[in-house]
Structures are given as structure tokens and as C-alpha cells.
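Session log. Operator J.P. requested a structure for one protein chain; no other inputs attached. Running the standard single-chain path with C-alpha cell output.
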Amino acid sequence: MKIFAISDTHGKHEQVQIPEGTDMLIHAGDFSNIKSASFNYNEVNLFLMWLQQQPVKYKVIIAGNHDTSIESRFITKKDFKDKGIIYLEHELIEIEGIKIFGSPYTPEFHNWAFNRKREKLGKIWDSIPDDIDVLITHGPPKGILDSAQRDNNNHEHAGCSALLKKVLKIQPKYMISGHIHDNQDNLNNGTFKLNEYKTIFANVSCVRDGNNLPFVHNGYSFEI
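Structure written below.
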């Protein structure tokens, strides 16, 4: 199975170049930009129409913190299903023997979609099954491809420590996330592996922080 993973296209999905021979496309959230759920609805629909047209057998997506129309149920699971898209909201699916779990939740920040208080995320991650091949979360685990630049120009590791603890316990083959883009001082896009663990971590954010969020990365391909 040849899998191509992207995240954080923020309305620039038409710049994505899907590699030839891709069997599954994964998007780890943030297809859109606008916070107002009613306006966000139009942005997400444009993305879904684009995705529906792509010649890939399986299309697996989760929402991100910007995709407010999904959390508000302006867009429903039926809307995804009608377009042949598999939408996961903290749930498991098995495709041709590959177990994939997807979850949209991220630590609370400016009250966007699917935000949860950090102290409550541990219980959410506890329900991720142990025996999975691919874990998709919108946000990364703490300390791995998660260096953010805040408003006061300070830098911090913005990922979730409870998520890291869970991932190191269950060790899926791949962990796909986005949410924290490249910024002027840090490169977050790419892959990372801790020597003693089997999981390959991938931040597949397509844009870089800055004016108009320029599209700078085209995703990550792997095979299972």
C-alpha cells in the first residue's frame, strides 16, 4: 500500500502534487482558514470537492483546529461519505489489513475547533487502541517536530506530552501529524525517529508561517 500524507493545506490544496501510484491519501487536518463556522463551511466544501476528484482509491482525513464547520456540524459525516471520503473523528478503521486511528484534538489555544485542555487530553489519548499501524493526529507529540513561535517571539515545544507518552507506549509504525508549521527559525516538516522505538514520526504540514501561509512542502510518501 503506497500512502501519501499531507496536512495544513489551508486552502492551497490545488498546489498539492499527488505522486503517481498512490493508493491512499491521508490529510491530517486544517484544510481551511476562517474561524467563523458558517464561512468556514465554504472553504471546507471547496477542499472536499477537490479531494473527491483525485484519482486515489482511499482518502482518509481528520479535521484540524481551523476546520470549525466540522466541529459545529455544518458539515457532517454523511457529507464525507457521499463524496467517497473516510472521515475519522477519534476512531479506528481497517483498510486492507492496515489499522488506522485518526483524531482531531489539540491542546487548547485561542478557542479553535477540537481544542481540549492539556490536563484532559491524557484521558482522550488513553482510548487509542494499542494495536494500530498508523496514528493520525492533527497536533504532534511534545518535543517532536513541534517548535512554535508565539506572539512574543518566544519559542516553545507546543505538542502534547500526554500524546507522546501514549505513542511511545503503543509504538505504531507511523505517526502522522501537522498543526505546527515551519516558521522563520524552525523546520518542523519532515520525519523523526527515536532510536529505541520503532515509530516514524512525520510532520506533513504543507505551509510555512508568514504572510499568506506560503505552500512550501508537498507531503510525505511511505509504504506499508
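Operator note: The longest helix spans residues 37-53.
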